[in-house]
Amino acid sequence: MGVAIGDSVLDVAAVADELRLPLRDLFSEAVLNRFLAAGPAAWREARERLTDWLTLPAHRAVVEPRLVPRGEVRLHLPFAVADYVDFYASRNHAENVGGIFRPGQPPLPRNWLHMPLGYHGRAGSVVISGTPVSRPSGQRWEPGEAGPSFGPSLRLDFEAEVGFVAGVGSRHGDPVPVAEFERHVFGACLVNDWSARDIQAFETVPLGPFLGKAFATSVSPWVVPLDALRAARTAPPPRDVEPPPYLREDADPWGLDLSLTVGINGGPVSRPPFATMYWTAAQLLAHLTCGGAPVRTGDLFASGTVSGPARDQLGCLLELTRNGAEPIVLADGSRRAFLADGDEVAITATAPGPGGEVISFGEVRGQVVPRPP
Amino acid sequence: MGVAIGDSVLDVAAVADELRLPLRDLFSEAVLNRFLAAGPAAWREARERLTDWLTLPAHRAVVEPRLVPRGEVRLHLPFAVADYVDFYASRNHAENVGGIFRPGQPPLPRNWLHMPLGYHGRAGSVVISGTPVSRPSGQRWEPGEAGPSFGPSLRLDFEAEVGFVAGVGSRHGDPVPVAEFERHVFGACLVNDWSARDIQAFETVPLGPFLGKAFATSVSPWVVPLDALRAARTAPPPRDVEPPPYLREDADPWGLDLSLTVGINGGPVSRPPFATMYWTAAQLLAHLTCGGAPVRTGDLFASGTVSGPARDQLGCLLELTRNGAEPIVLADGSRRAFLADGDEVAITATAPGPGGEVISFGEVRGQVVPRPP
Questions:
Q1: What pLDDT was estimated at residue A373?
Q2: Are A203 and B291 a contacting pair at CB < 8 A?
Q3: Which helix (H) or strand (E) holds B301?
């Protein structure tokens, strides 16, 4: 287990071992899951220890040799993913997608304002930032074609999202109220929910997104603890419709003022503001569990594409290019309707920290590679 | 690890230990996953050993004391579920559901004959046969009502399905061709994909089934090896549309002549014939992986509701009662549009074995209990 400190990574397992901390066993696993399962008291204790190590001169001799430059560290998938759920919590995104796919109809589905919509994704396809993403093949049936065809996706897209990582599981049958969000969720990471729009479009009625999403989902190596995001908490946009009691979050809502940036091949193409999300992470978890579905350690649930109201705040190419009709121009002058082989997508985010400090989420990065023949 | 032998369960771990078999470590785990991951050679060897034990007089003294009456055995979830996918592979079911939910439109969605449709379910909600199933709460918006309401489902249903359990994983990015089905899949089990029709109906557009299915999925404790199902293999119904090459299964198709029975409170209500399924299990796996999604040890993919063409061959109450409009009469004379609290649903299945023998899948059973207040 490592912790990002400026441009270094602190080898927490080694320090804890040298100081013979009771928590040290949790820090020396290949994934965070045992630490995640240990719950809020252990998470808090770990943060307090870290603060001591980094501030008390007495620990300097132990800590300094364990700070490794980031460039020398290979980061791995931080947790074993149990179930992966992807939501659809941005109203701007849902309205834009509705306008593209269902022109002439109301942009929001009739359930959208009453509950956060979501679907289960493929946990086995979650990969760590930096893993190349093979362009998937699949069936599509484009308008004007006589029938479906099979081949590599022609409309490959990214989706800039924020994911939430569950630590403490819940009992099967017991809902997790919005007020208990922090008892179960450890922190947040960045997610790129790669999407093949042509495959998705043909398969999606009536069972929803499946193979158009299941080929890969990339996550950042760093999971930012909720405890570090107190200064980022904010109220979500006002409700148009009063949600049912299990979704009400009157005091201290879990909207988060995160600033995302999406870059393609090194140049920024969008700056989605997470504070515009209609449903908060606490509401997502309350909805997911309202029928009794259990949460397990390592569950990942993502926000869905983060899109703000402005043209340069949209979280996927489907919206940025209006389904390919209006290509964007990259920093090198080339145009993109959708992703080309070799394109590298990087999503970063920052949050306001205590006392004006800026907290970095690091990045989730991935390069599109052609499918081997 | 136990093996069902008539009315007994053979304690395979104990026998293997006593005989000091090289495989014995695989048999003494709490779940089958290590055995599943060991692959076809190990699966075959285990079956050969078992046949020896049960037929060679030399082994009788070791084996007989390890045969435990079934009533004295508590059976557990046989494998740790990695990803769970539910398909929609019965044409009768898809047409019936289409007729109920989309009257006046073609009963099959336009993609249905071109590929097996599916969606990801919640792996953490998979429970072993016998586990009580709490009636889920959720949001519904019934026709004629002014707005949605939240409460316990009023249209709780079962779905009789067959599930397939992956043993050997695949590499992320590499499709599993239909011809390699047996290299990856160990066997089949029974699945009850409990469904809350009112919750499902309100949430399902546009992202597909989510909480209407995620509260519980029950599986049978026994996983029948594919090796034991050779005599059950059969051709699926003829294709209306030639599928693309990755779905073609010309020689030795994986249709299976399984006979299911669904009972409520001890009386049979339906006998769905699995041989009528349009898409075979090998096609389901080939489709699932055609875009490069990986398979992992413990992956479960289910057929979707098994429904034959006749009125007494339908695999769920939605079809049996035409969405509640024509209630069925149970053995005790009571009527059911959907499941009542206290109802116990049991699904059993048999397959033809070698030489006229009948292979039993055992059962998946579950009782509906009210949600605690």
A1: 65
A2: no
A3: strand B300-302
